[in-house]
Amino acid sequence: MCIRDRHKVCLGNRRLSILDLSEAGHQPMLSDNSQITIAYNGEIYNFKLLRSELIQHGFKFKSESDTEVIIKAYEFWGEGAFEKLNGIFAFCLHDKRKNCVYLVRDQSGVKPLYYNANINQLIFASEVKAFAHSGFSLSENENWKIYYLAFGHIPEPFTTLKSVYTLPKGSFLKYELADGSFKINPYFEFSAAIEIIDENEAIMRIREELTKAIKLQLISDTSIGVLFSGGLDSSIITLLADNYTKGNLTSISANFNEIDFSESSHRKAISERVLANKHEHLITYRDFVYNFEKVMKCMDQPTNDGINTWFICKCAKENGIKSVLSGLGADELFGGYPSFDRIRKIQNLGSLSKALIKSARLLKNTKLKRLYYLSFESPVGEYLCLRGLYTPDIIAELLGLDIQTVINCLQNIPLNDSIRYLNDEERASWFEMNMYMQNQLLKDTDFMSMSHGVEVRVPFLDVNFIKLVSAIHPSIRFGENQKKRLLIEAYKDELPSQIWNRSKMGFTFPFQEWIRKNKEIASPDRYQNKKAKKLMQTFGENKLHWTSALALYKIFNAS
Amino acid sequence: MPPKKVLFLTLKVFGFTGGIEKVCRTICRTLYDLSEEELVDPMTYCMYDQSYDRDSRYLKKHQYKGFGGNRKFFVVKSLLTGLKSDVVILSHINLLSVAYLIKRLKPSTKVYLIAHGIEIWRKLPEAKIKALKRLDKIIAVSHFTAAQIKSAHHLSEQKIEVLNNCLDPFYHFPSIFSKPESLLHRYGLHKDQIILMSLSRLVATEKYKGYDNTIAILPRLVKNNPNLVYLLAGKWDEEEHARLEKLIEQHQIRDHIKLIDFVDEAEVTDHFLLSDVFIMPSKKEGFGIVFIEAVAGGLRVVAGNKDGSVDALKHGELGYLVDPDNLDEIENTLKKILVSLPNQEEKMALQQKVFETFNYEKYRNSIKNLIFNGAVKPADS
Prior knowledge:
By secondary structure, chain A is α/β, with parallel strands linked by helices. Chain A is 42% helix and 14% strand.
């Protein structure tokens, strides 16, 4: 905790020590002349490089930490320093000389950063839960239940609190302490320009950049692990990381009694090829029941995902691992989801009359029912058609609202303009990267992993790797008949065929079975809301996905 | 040798949590394990469950079909598949008619029936007894069930073989026998209290579980042990619930009994850990899987000595067998147990013993023997 009376600035930090475990790395950290203070969450992978550069420019360092590098980089390059940082980070800089405070978030939006800003105050935290402890009373966002029931998460920039927002990725907020004015400035944006049209070049560059990213992300003063599901993405990460750790890597995998979900035979093919220490953890229905409440408490923002991350990171922690590499991001970049197939069909339906599309809500099939969302003016409708939970009519009934209120609320969600110019798989990729991954996967992964004091690193989301993949022509980048074709082609020689020649599984847990079996969550008797009760009955008949059931639990049943 | 085609016919497997269903699930897993060894090609049909009720710990999706109560369709499919099968296993006597047809049309198909308890002891119509006699073997879950079948239906000794039930392959074996704080908290109990427990369905139509007798002796037990509490666990029906409430009032034991309703499978072991004695002096158990589960949870068990419970408690080696109608005997047995409750090591030894006797691997081997040799016991034993 660091309180600076004259400027009324207070920074607090709870540190997960990974680089420079000594006291020299403690935070909040002050610059040599005490003019700059930082509270920082994350990891700067290229900090050694920047450190050397700064030393050449005459800077002297007291610690081995990346935190000090950020301070000195800022002292030297000013705001220009932010773009030079390669890593996963969210930090606050208090500059006494300029009498301002900066909030800065990484380019890929891996680390979360929430803020509440007005003329009188700037409050920020890496979790929304923290605001309740800030001493300021912030009212609930009355729309959060609509968002959650439609998306399965709360989309950026919104949160469950009315005036608390997410800072956009690749941007910084500058708050002037003198007059309470503030502005959000993007310091980095991924370019949409296509530069690579040759497949061999693409493959060569992918191999080069991913290796670089992994080598960079293996820096740590504590033991490092890899979340290894046995799927394509985590297998690639495991194989590559193993090359550079010489047996110093630990692979963490989950196993289940449920036959449909057991992936151990697929993992075997990779396990035999690597030196890494292998840890397989059996996660049972009993574990689920005994930990469910704890998991719900760790859930910073309502979401339908992250329970699997909570369990797998618990396993990592039990093995003494503080940092793990994950395959997150590859599905979004290379087209691993069904949305990449569906997007063209959806685009074609866009030409139908709105009245006809709206009639889709009368259909029984959940996927078809979601076609209703195509009647929206905003591209948000397309996303919700691909990935939404409930349609506006059901949300309105559940929450006792007028359907138009629900529709207006969802249509008014701001989206980045870049989506206008994208079509087909590129459009699907944009939705997956900027909405599903940004709003759900990354957020969930962060709070669930950090609840165990485990940091998840995501080599596929390395800023240079994303830049490269975005520059590959879509006809090469996305496979028509095979999901993630280009990634498979890039690593076909190293990967056993059973890893890529099968349907997607990943870290899939038997939640449908477990939740249906658990009366606390699934029994319709526990729901007072008539519609929720009815929907839970259909869940009992296996006609509703567990994510939809969990949303009802969070809103109507959770204590 | 191509894998043997095995058809397992059931009434309910996953949609219900009784003893018969537990046996069915274990047989499903056995067939799955044997299919992984490429020894059998199994299929399970379930008359009343839906296909989506399948618990994927026990078998693969393509190895199971639920007919959701469509009996005609179930019978037709069972007959057609049965005629293509080498072995048909029936989980219940109510499935006898379809098996009889299979046996008539294709005598080379081996047909076995698992006989649990009360459903097969009672008087059966002549046609059913005739059909029973055509089966290749009846597998009784206890010696008591076997004896009842023999005497009630005059079946030959060679037709009947005993295969005791086993612990579920996914039963959670505790290694530390301390009372779980979360459950103490949930029920407002403290760790020094003596806790008796029973676990069964509480239904008005089933009057043989013996909890009425436990309730009846409770006032006497409480006199010597004022801290004693009886946890009556299990899903109740309204009629039985109302009757039990009255009984509690009548005996004035409100402070010493808790009706705790359905216990989630995930919490069963912890409920055993919470308790000191498992008591269910029932009279018509075919076997009583719950007894062996309670012993595996380190509990002293009191069961009736007039039914299949005798096998479950290994003639008294694994617990106490009492005359279920003799209240004094039940009370005295409990008093004897309560003066010297087992310590950690004794509980562990008890668990080991029940595991050695009723483990899943042994059971699987027996079913394998049945499929391949027509007898659950190896030929040389």
